[in-house]
Amino acid sequence: MSDTPNCTGCFLVASPYLADGHFFRAVVFIVRHTSEGAFGVVINRVGEQRFSEVVEMSDPTWQKSSSKSSSKIKSSKLVDTASDLNLNEASFANPSSSSNDQLARSDVYRDWIHIGGPVDGPLLALHNIAGIGEPCGIDDESDSHGTQAVVNDHPAESFGSMSIQWADVPAWMTADEDHLRLLSRREDAKLRFIVGYSGWGAGQLDDELEAGGWLVTPAEAESIFGNEDDVWEKLVKRCGHAILKDLRPDLAMPAESESFDPGMN
């Protein structure tokens, strides 16, 4: 890789000047970034279908995430790819549509299937339950992330009470159907169902970073699973604060929730 940063475990925050309509005001969580390319998922694009609409839960204890959803369950098998949900390029590139605005304001974020990018990919889940699937944001070329055994009140498997949790991991990811069903019933889980992904070939993301197309900031669970309506604005402000802090270490930065004082210019 070049002198550009390794973005594994970081957010790519679309620059206000990024010309690619696919990523207008997008926040991409980079799961892996190596010399061979990069893979990530957009966290602030909500689709038009619920998880409960595309899977039939055979477990009689299953409870839908929202009592407001009265749609008929469509399939007994989870969708395999983004194309199965008829998620086309237009629906991804136009996040300001009225239907998406309405869905994004819903109080049931966890049941909506989000659109992770323009590349066709399987239905998966980003979540915070250690031991289900794979940890995200681990730099294979670094030893900075150790492991530790922890006892969970709600283990990944009903017959176990011990799991391995990576230090400083913002999320876990799985595409396993049994895992998805399990997570959908875990009311304690922070969860995003996602279909499709964002991918870059060797050197492609590095070129975009050097061209100034993206702002980069460390990823954290609060932004991944929080309010997607304002996450782009929040992270743009965070990146702006970091840039100014590098230029003026003596400058007192306002909190992320506060605006800049024009007198500081």
TrEMBL record:
Pfam family of the protein (one)? DUF179
Q: What is this protein called?
A: Uncharacterized protein
Q: Quick one: signal sequence residues?
A: none
GO cellular component entries = cytosol
Family membership, please give it: Belongs to the UPF0301 (AlgH) family.
